[in-house]
Design a protein that fits this description.
disordered C terminus, 9 strands, alpha+beta, five-stranded mixed β-sheet, 44% helix, Immunoglobulin-like
Length: 366
């Protein structure tokens, strides 16, 4: 048992740390989506006229006028991409210095790595890319390729800041490309493709690459087996429509289309809104794939779960889901499913998983 004097000291320390104006961790910065400005589009037309030097100079000017923005970073990457190889490290290092702990910093470091290796020594490149991913909190490539604990490894990525996740999506995506396109190790690449689908579902559409890789591994040929669209099936496990929940209900749903002859779900272009706000960043994805590619068996099931960051206010709330098939760009018809669930947060409520953490068995039980 602590002495009274020790408890007093601990309480004083706690009070000092929580005092008004005490240093707080800065909020996580998430960069805005890229929007082409008039000046950017005008500069881009210089390329059509093969005025490369002017294009590079204009990209540098726009970046200098928009420091610390997505536009500025994109312009620096364009300047680097159209520069001589000897000039690229200087530009990429400027991105690293100007955009710390961002997707742009990670992409710039990856570009430096690509410039170092070119298309030679893919195993050496993979080792360095793996170290780069791990330096930002990503799981080791060797652990992913074993394929035995992909749910936990995906959750490790989903716990990272959003900017880091955007950056790592590119790193692991290029590692997948190296295994498949350079080393031709299709079977070995399958767990990495599934991991990418789970860990980076909100950043990229990996269903086609997953199908291609499995097809190549099993048949020895590249072929896109999906030839038709169906409306995705969306099964909201919780909350149920017109039911009552507690203030932080576990949102849980399942989505799928059909067998390998049917286009899968494009997670990047699907939307999940809680009270009109994007809920994707709060969701954890699990992917279950039928590797047999047999007709009549659902090729891919996507299991999503997550809680609101803060307790919901008492009263009515909405969960809106728009699931899109890969390659389907219409706003209605076959290939798109819209689902609306209305529920109420109140003092008395049905079982809402508030006291249960997510468990793999939940999906089989529901």
């Amino acid at each position: 048992m602590r002495k009274p004097t020790e408890l007093v000291i601990l309480l004083l320390i706690l009070a000092w740390a929580l005092r008004p104006g005490a240093a707080q961790a800065p909020p996580e910065k998430v960069y805005e989506p890229f929007v082409k400005t008039t000046e950017y589009e005008e500069a881009w037309r210089l390329l059509d006229a093969s005025r490369f030097e002017e294009f590079r100079a204009r990209m540098a000017e726009i970046a200098a006028a928009n420091p610390g923005t997505t536009l500025g970073a994109v312009c620096l990457f364009k300047q680097s991409g159209w520069s001589e190889s000897s000039d690229r490290p200087r530009i990429l290092n400027a991105i690293i210095a100007g955009y710390p702990r961002s997707r742009f910093e990670i992409w710039a470091r990856l570009d430096l790595l690509n410039g170092q290796y070119g298309y030679s020594d893919m195993e050496g490149w993979l080792a360095d890319a793996d170290r780069l991913a791990q330096s930002y909190g990503g799981p080791p490539l060797a652990a992913i390729l074993r394929g035995r604990d992909l749910d936990r490894l995906s959750a490790q990525v989903l716990a990272l800041p959003v900017e880091v996740r955007y950056g790592l999506a590119e790193v692991y995506g290029e590692m997948l490309g190296g295994l498949v396109c350079q080393l031709k190790q299709y079977e070995r690449a399958v767990p990495l493709a599934i991991f990418g689908r789970q860990a980076f579902s909100m950043h990229s559409d990996g269903i086609i690459s997953l199908e291609y890789i499995l097809t190549k591994a099993k048949t020895g040929t590249w072929s896109h087996l999906a030839t038709k669209f169906v409306s995705p099936t969306v099964r909201v496990i919780h909350p149920r429509h017109a039911r009552h929940t507690g203030p932080r209900p576990k949102i849980r749903l399942e989505m799928f289309t059909g067998d390998v002859s049917v286009e899968g779900i494009d997670l990047r272009r699907s939307t999940i809104l809680l009270d009109g706000q994007d809920f994707w960043p709060r969701l954890r994805a699990r992917v279950r794939v039928d590797k047999s590619l047999k007709p009549g068996r659902v090729f891919e099931r996507i299991l999503l779960s997550g809680r609101p960051a803060l307790p919901l206010a008492p009263g009515r709330h909405t969960l809106e889901i728009v699931a899109r098939s890969s390659g389907y760009y219409q706003e209605s018809g076959t290939g798109l499913t819209r689902t609306l669930v209305e529920f109420t947060v109140g003092k008395s409520h049905d079982d809402d998983c508030d006291r249960r953490e997510d468990d793999a068995r939940d999906w089989e039980q529901d």
